[in-house]
Amino acid sequence: MMKKTLPVAALAAAMIGLPAQGMADDPVRIGSFLSASGPASYLGDPQRNTLRLFVDKINEDGGVLGRDVEWQYYDDHGEAGQARTFARRLIAQDQSDIVIGGTTTGATMAAVELFQRQETPFISLAGAVVVVDPVKEWVFKTPETDRMAARQVFADMERRGITKVGLISGTGGFGASGREQARDVADEFGIEIVMDETYSPDDSDMTAQLTRIRGNEDVEAIFNFDFGQAPAIVTRNYANLGIDRPLYQSHGVASEGFLELAGSAAEGVRLPVSPILVADILPEDDPQKAPSMDYLEAYEAEYEERPSAFGGYAYDALMIAVDAIERAGTTDPHAVRDALESTSDFDGVTGTFNMTPEDHMGLDIETSFRMVEIKDGTWSLIED
To answer: What pTM value is reported for the model?
Structure first.
């Protein structure tokens, strides 16, 4: 296995008997590869903004372990090959102590092997369950999984007496994984998927697929699993066709951007969202209320717009990384990895994290998702 080359300063410290990991002039190095442009930009751009803002705030407050945080960032444009190239650069060239990134499932999975082989702690911002299931020793994640989202949607359908569903999903990494997870857990809620349509990431109209779903009289509701602009197209096509059965989306559309793209067609759509999207209407005793409001207010003050759930994933990843390094008392990769794995009762904006050797995400449905319905162009909490 290749070893990391120690920086010159660290070699000098070793020669005179000083701890290499604790030098005052040696920064804590956090690296990121994000999809800040390209088809996944509405996920990656708020992640970049979040990390830039809060790394600066951490440094203003004294840094980590009394050292400045140095943040190195690359834009992979949503391309898996670029993600792998930048992940390699962050490890070998930039000597990152920990990496936060992988906006999409495709970008994350293209780089996972590198972090495993080079033993570098990595916190992914991608949604698919495959990122952490099976568990990978050096890989963690902060977003809720597609499997959890499917369960939340089907639980809401079960409460409404819906038993037969038309599924429509993208064929990209996130959509394909979401489709698989939805099909896998539907039986738990007494739900039968009676129609199963797909579309490619480049499709600009899904009227044909929705027309076929509409033509099946058994379909009682439609569930779309994807991210990016495609779900907004599905929503507009659904409205144009005058389909009178409920439409559900996944957490992949949980942002103000979806509301803008879908417009009035999104009225009545239901989906699971991270607490950050409804922070200001959460009960005061909700464990996600305080961290979500802190993040929301700082982000709005800096960028004059509301943050998204996707930015929230980056915020949680950064704060969990800082917490792990502080608890480890060092940037030694093995110590940081162990500290990440023992993260407990950490109230983030996505949920309360309790990681273990068997669970490198550590979220449960109860604290991480809130079901909402879009009313008058905004989110409205659905009470159980």
So the answer is: 0.86
